[in-house]
Amino acid sequence: MTKLKELIGIMKDKASQGKAAILSKRITLYLLRATSHDSFTPPTHKHISTLLSFGDGSRATASAAVELLMNRLQTTQNSAVALKCLIAVHHIIKHGTFILKDQLSVFPSSGGRNYLNLSNFRDKSTPISWELSSWVRCYAKHVEQLLCTSRILGFFLSGETNDAPETREERASGLTNGDLLRETEALLVLIEGVGEIPESGSVEENKLVGEIVGLVEEDGVAALSEVCVRVNEFRERLGCLCFGEVVELVYAMKRLEGCKEKIAMMKVMVEVAEKMRMWDSVRELKEKVENMEEGKLYRRKVTRHVSDRFAVAVLSSVDLVQFRSTRFWFESDDL
C-alpha cells in the first residue's frame, strides 16, 4: 500500500509537470519539480537555484513565484510536498534576493503576517507520511519564528548579506536598552525553538529530514552569534540600566543558560557556543546583573523607608497645625 501511494504521487508529479510544460508555465513547472511527492529526497540545488532566480527579474515575476509557492504549501495534504515547500521558503529567507524576501514578508497581501497555518497538519496516507507530519508542524513553527525574529531585528537572520561582526557590534551599540532587550528576547525564542526540534527516530536516514535539521541548525548558529553581540553590549552598559531592565536582563540570561541543555544534541551549535565562550560570558553577566538587582532592590527599600519616615513627619506637622487652628477657632468663638 505504501509503495502504491508513492507511485500515485510520482504519477501526479509527472502529470502536473507535463501540463505546466504544455501551457508554458515556467514558474509552475520548476516549482513542481522542486516540491515533488518523494518522501526521502530534498529539492536539488539546481531546482532551488532556479526558484531563487525568479527574484532576479521583475517584482511581478517574484510576486507570482512567492504566491504559487505559498499557495502550494497551504493547500497540499502531502507531508513531503509541504516539507519541500518549507525548505524553499527557508532558502528564500537565507539566500533570496531583496525582491523575493520583500514579497515573502508581505504575503498574504491582506495582513502581511505570513502565518503558515500548519499547526494542525496531518498526513495519514502512509506511516512515513504520518511521521513526517510532525516535522511539517515543527519546521513550519521554526520558519514562522525565523520570519518574526527577522522583522524585529530589521534584517533577515541567516542571510548571506549579514553584516560583519564589527558592523553588528556598532549597530547594537546604537540601540536603546529596550530595543536591545526586545531583540534578545526574539533571538532567545528562536534558539529555544531550535532546541525543540524532534529527534530523527525512524527517519534518521531520511535525506529530506537531514536537510531540514541542517538548515535549522544554521539558523541556531546565526542566532547564537547575534546573542553574543548583545551579551557583550549589555556588559558595556550595565551602569545605564534601570531596575526594571536589570530584572528583564536577569530573566533573559537565565533562559539563555537553559538553552545550553536544549541544544546539547546540536553538535555544530555546541562547538560554536564553546568557541565564542558563550556560556562563560552569559554566566559572568548574569552574576553581575544579579548583584546589581540585589543592590538596586536594597537601595529601593532604603529609599522607600526614608520616604515613609519623611511622610510621617510631614503628616505630624500638618496635624499640629490643624490642631492649633481648631483650638484658635474655639477660643475666638468663645470670645
Automatic annotation (TrEMBL):
Q: Where in the cell is it found?
A: Cytoplasmic vesicle, Clathrin-coated vesicle; Golgi apparatus; Membrane, Clathrin-coated pit
Q: Give any single GO term for biological process.
A: vesicle budding from membrane
- Is Membrane among this UniProt entry's keywords? yes
GO terms of molecular function: 1-phosphatidylinositol binding; clathrin heavy chain binding; phosphatidylinositol-4,5-bisphosphate binding; SNARE binding
Fetch the PROSITE patterns from UniProt: ENTH
Q: Which residues form the ENTH domain?
A: 19-157
What are the annotated GO cellular component locations? clathrin-coated pit; clathrin-coated vesicle; Golgi apparatus
Keywords from the UniProt entry: Coated pit, Cytoplasmic vesicle, Endocytosis, Golgi apparatus, Membrane
This protein's source sits in the domain of life called Eukaryota
Q: Which PANTHER family match?
A: CLATHRIN ASSEMBLY PROTEIN (PTHR22951), OS09G0468150 PROTEIN (PTHR22951:SF76)
Q: What is this protein called?
A: Clathrin assembly protein At4g40080
Which organism does this sequence originate in?
Answer: Abrus precatorius
| Gene behind this protein | LOC113851344
